[in-house]
Amino acid sequence: MAHTLSPPAAAVQNELPATLPARLLQNTLNNRSLTIGLLIIVSLGVVALLAPWLAPHDPYLQNTANRMVPPIWHETGSWTHPLGTDRLGRDYLSRLIFGARISLFIGLVVALISGLIGTTLGVLAGYFGGRVDAVVSYLLTTRLAMPVVLVALAMASLIGGSMLTVTLLLGLLLWDRFAVVARSATQQLRDAEYVQAAQALGCPLHYILLREVLPNIAGALIVVATLEVANAILLEATLSFLGMGVQPPSPSWGLMIAEGKAYMFFQPWVITIPGAALFILVLAINLLGDGLRDLSAPGGRNE
Amino acid sequence: MSSAANPRDPLALELCSLSKTFKLGGGMLHKSQTLKAVNDVSLRVPRGQVMGLVGESGCGKSTLAKMLLGLTKPSSGDVLINGKAIVNANQKALARHIQPIFQDPYSSLNPRQRIAQIVGLPLRIHAIGTPKEQALKVEEMLDMVGLPKRAAQQYPGQMSGGQRQRVAIARALIMRPDLVICDEPTSALDVSVQAQILNLLLDLKDEFGLTYLFISHDLAVVEHLADRLAVMYLGRIVEEGTREQIFNAPRHPYTQALLASALTPEPGLGVPDIGLGAGQPDPTQPPSGCAFHPRCPVAKPQCSQQSPALSAIAQGATQATHQSSQARVACHFA
Amino acid sequence: MSNLSTAERSAAPTSPLLTVKQLRVDLPVAKGTLHAVRGIDFHVERGEMLCLVGESGCGKSMTSLALMGLLPGKAQINADCLNFDGVNLLTVSERERSNLRGARMAMIFQEPMTALNPAYTLGNQLCEALLRHQRVSRKAAHDRALYLLERVGISAAEERMRQYPHQLSGGLRQRVMIAMALMCEPDLIIADEPTTALDVTIQAQILHLLRDLQQEFGTAIIFITHDLGVVARIADRVAVMYAGEVIETASAQALFNAPSHPYTQGLLRCIPTPGKTLPGSRLQAIPGVVPSLIDKVEGCAFCNRCDQADERCYSTPPLQTVAEGHLSRCHFAHQLANPANLNAQEVTL
Question: What are the average pLDDT values for consecutive 10-residue runs of chain B, which has 334 residues?
Fold first, then answer.
C-alpha cells in the first residue's frame, strides 16, 4: 500500500556535514570562546597528567641555599629555576605544575559528586512534583541558607583538613545549582509529548529518566558543571589559603599564595604566579562553559 | 495480526461513568479548588470505527485521552478496552492495545534520538524480536508511513512537521495496537500537509483494522474522518451519535452553535452570528444545572436548576433502536 | 497595479490607503540569508478587508511586521514603494513611525496575552493607548474605553476596566485587544492570525465582531491567516502567499470560484469540505514541501510540487491578469482561469 501514499518530502536536507562528530567539530571551531577555553584546559590537563615528566625538579625537595630565587625575568633569575623558588627553596615551576593536578582533580571530582547529588534530586523533584518536590525544595532552601565557606571551614577544622576532606565537603555542599537547573528543566520536559509517549508505551521509570529526560537536560547541566568546577577550584584555593584545605607540603595553588603572603610586598611574584595560574584556569573553564551553552541547545541541530 | 484482541467483543473501547477530579491550588494561603475535568462520561466505541471527540479547549478531552492511555488514574468509573477493565492493568499490557498520536510533532519526538531509535522504542521496551528483526520492522514501518529509508538515521530536527508526524504515526503503530488515540494530530500542520496525514491515517486504519478516537476542534476534519461523534462541554458529553445524526440534525444547542461556527471555504456566506454569550465559564466553578445554560440561546429557568441527563433520543416508535446507532443528547429540550 | 479597481467602496480619496511594491525582507541566519519576503506587490483600499493567506513560512507575518516597522534589527527591508496614505514607510523617522503606530496603524496579535502588559489594568492600558497619541482628558479616554469595551461585547465593562489581563479568558482578551486597536480610530489594522488560538465558537464571534466594527468605523484591515474558511467568510480581497511571494490576488468571490494558480487550486482541493468531499475518501494532498528560502529560488517556487509544471516553469512567471482585479503568478494562469478547462478538470477528479 505504500505506493498509494503521497510521496514524502524530497528536498528537506539542508547542507549539513555528514556525521555528527564532524558537525560538532565545525560548530566548536566556529565558537571562539569555546576554542580558546578548550585549548587552555586541554594543555593544562596534559601538563597535569605528565607532571612527573615535565616538572624540572622535585616539588617537595627543599634547598635552603636557594631560597626565594626570583623568576627568570628578574635580573638575578636563572634558567635552573625559571619561576624561581619559594621560602624553602622548592622549585616554583614544579610546584605550579603539580598544583595543577590538585586543582583539576578537586574541581572535577567535586563537580562529579555534586552533579550526581544535585541532578538526582533535581530530576526526581521535577519529574514527580508534589511531595517529592516539596522535600527536595526544603533540602535546597536549607542548603542555600548555609554559607559554603563558613560551613566548610567549620567542618574541615572539626575533621581536619586534607585533600579528601575538602573534596568530599565541597562535593556535598555545591549541588544546589545542579538541583535547581535539573529541577526546572525536568519540569518543562515532564509534560513533553515524547515523555508522555514513552509513559504510554510502558517504559520503565529508569528508562524515561535516563534516556528521555536526562539527554535533553544534559546541555544545561554541563554548563552548570563547568561553572561548578571553577567554583570548586576557587573554594579549594580559599580553604587552603585559610589553612583548612590541602595541607602542606602539598603544592596547592591556594596554599602557595598563603605561604607567599608574608613576602608579597617585596617579592610580589610569589603570589602573582599562582594567582595568575588560578585566574587563567578559572577563566578558561568559564569560557568553555559559555561556549558549551551556545553549542548545547538542540536548536543548533534545527534551522 | 492484531495482538491478543478479543475479536468477539464488538466494542474496542467502552467508558463507564468515567470521572476525573483535580485539586487545584491549595497552598498555605489559598483554599484548594476542585476541577471536574471529566464528569461522568460514558461512551462506547465500536471496533473499526472512528469516534470523533470535539469540544472547546478545557472541556476535558485531553484529560480523557490521558486516562485512556493510562497516564492519569480516573477518580471514578471504568475504562474497558476489548471488554477488559484497564484501571489496574499493567501499563505495558495496556500499551499493546492503545497508543497515542499527539498534536505537536515538534514536541512528541525526543530531539536527541535518531528516528530509528524512536520508532523502534516500543519493540525494544516490549522485547519483541531480535535487534535485527526490530530494525527490519522499523524499516518496514517507515516505508508504510511514506518515509524514505535514510530517514531512519536522521534526527527529528532535520525533518519537516509533516514528516515528524509520520514518524509519530509509525511509532504508534509499530506494535499493531487496536486503538489509537489521535489528539489533534493535524492541527499543528499546514493545510497541504494536513491532507497528506489524514490520507495516511485513513489508509493505515483500513490496512490494520484500527479503531481511532479522534480528538479535534476542526469540525471539517472530524466530519471527514469520523463515523461517530461525541461533543463535550465542561467535562460532560452533551451529545453523541453517528456522523449523519450529528451533522444533519444536531439536537443540543451547543452542538448547533459549534456546527454553525465552523467556517467552510464558501465565499459570500459571511460569518454567522451564533448567538452565544461572550463569556466562557470558569471550569472550577461550573454553572448550576445544565453547564451550558448561561450561554444557551434557548435556556429556560429550569436549565439553571436541573442538570439534564444524557439520554437516548426517541426517534419514533418504528425506528429499530440498536444500541450503538442510537443518538444521545443531554438537553431538556432535545 | 492601477488596473485593480475595488475602489468603488472607498468614498473619499482615490489613492489606496497602503501601496506596497516589490517589498523584500532578508534575514541573516546561520546558514546564509533567508529571503523571507521576495518582492511582493499589493495595495489596501480604505475600509476594505484584505486577507493575506498562506502556510507557515510563506512570509505573511514578516510582511506585517515590515509594515509596522517591528522587524528585528538585523532584518533588511527593501521596497520600490511602501506608501501609507502619503507617508513613505521606508524613510520615516523612528519618532514619526511610533506616532503612526497605534494612532493610524494598529496591530492585533495571535496571542493577546503577550501583547497585553500583565502589570497594568485593562482600563489603564486602553486609556494609555489613546492618551499617548491624542490630547484628550483622562475622563474622555476612560469614556471611550468604556464605550469600546461594551461595543466589543464585554459585559460589566466598568468592572473589567479594573481587572488585569490574566483574569480574562482568551476570547475576552482578544476582544480587549480589538478595543485597544480601535481606541485611536486607526485607518489600518493589521490582524496577525487573531483567532487561531481561540475555540471555534469564540472565533466565529470574534470574526463577526471584527466585520461589524470594520463596517461601523470604516477601518481597513489586513487579516493574516492560514485558514481558508476564515478567508472565504470575511475577505473583500485576498492575496495568496507562497514561499515569500504573492502568487494570486483576487476578490474573495473570484478566488474561491475561479482560482487561477495551481497552488490556490491545490489548497482548496485538499481541505475537507462538507458537501464537496466524500467523508472517508482520500483528500487531494499537495505533495512535497515548501522550498527552503535560504538560497536563491530560481523560476517558479511552486514548480516542484505542481502537477502542471513543464520546462517553462524554470523561468520566473510574470504576474498575469486573468480577469479584472484578478492576478496570478503562473505561466498557465489563463488556461487555469478558463472555465472550460476547469470543468474538464473537475470531471477528471
Answer: 53 90 70 84 91 88 90 89 81 90 89 92 91 93 91 89 92 93 89 89 92 91 92 91 90 90 85 75 81 85 85 57 68 80
- What CATH number did the domain enclosing B139 receive? 3.40.50.300
Candidates A6, A11, A15; nearest CB to C291: A11
Range of the domain at B153: 11-24+32-252
Q: Does residue B319 lie in a domain region?
A: no
The DSSP secondary-structure symbol of A212 reads I
How many structural domains does chain B have? 1
Q: What DSSP letter does each residue of C44-79 carry, written as one string?
A: E-TT-EEEEE--TTSSHHHHHHHHHT-S-TT-EEE-
Whether B205 is in a domain gets the answer: yes
Test the C interface: residue of B51, B271, B284, B285 with most C CBs within 10 Å:
B271
Q: Say if B68 falls within a structural domain.
A: yes
- Which residue carries 461589524 as its cell? C212
- Across all residues in chain A, what is the average pLDDT? 84
- Return left, alpha or beta for B110; rule: phi > 0 is left, psi -120 to 50 is alpha, else beta: beta
Q: How far separated are the first and last CA of chain A, in Å rounded?
A: 33
Position B166, amino acid? R
**Structural domain contains residue B312:** no
Evaluate whether B238 touches B252 at the Cβ level (below 8 Å): yes
| Contact check, Cβ <8 Å, A10/C31 | no
Using CA atoms, how far apart are residues B117 and B155, in angstroms rounded to an integer? 10
Q: Kindly list the partner chains of chain A, i.e. chains with 3 or more CB atom pairs below 8 Å.
A: B, C
- On whether the CB atoms of residues B252 and B291 are closer than 8 A, the answer is no
Rounded CA-CA distance C11/C8 in Å is 7
Cell 587563567 belongs to A280
